[in-house]
Amino acid sequence: xxxxxxxxxxxxxxxxVIELRYYDGLRSSRYYSWEMPVDEANDLARWWKNEGAxxxxxxxxxxxxxxxxxxxxxxxxxxxxxxxIDRFGxxxxxxxxxxxxxxxxxxxxxxxxxxxxxxxxxRKCSTRSL
Length: 130
Hints:
Blueprint: E1 7-12, E2 17-23, E3 31-37, H1 38-50, E4 62-67, E5 70-76, E6 79-84, E7 96-99, H2 100-113, H3 119-128
Antiparallel strand pairs: 1-2, 2-3, 4-5, 5-6, 6-7
Helix pairs in contact: 1-2
């Protein structure tokens, strides 16, 4: 059984929304698409970088883990479910069911946009400015 590679595109928009596109294959023009506000995308990417990438099968399921402005659930290694929450901590109506490849591409894309965004770099900046 051959494992087909997937292609992911991250397209920022003018109105603080990121479009995430997950293509069926490398040469395919068909894709799944999600539009997500930048602040929710940042929270999801921070969660993945801090905790999500290290979750093992024995630690699943993760149910309604609050991280910033999103509630995150993970029932299998391949997908992440994210629901934005309002200022009172209640889940909003929209939700995202994202493949792992999309989350990994989102993290890489946001790190390119914000160079020096690593924790080590931010500590350096804060100590230099004192």
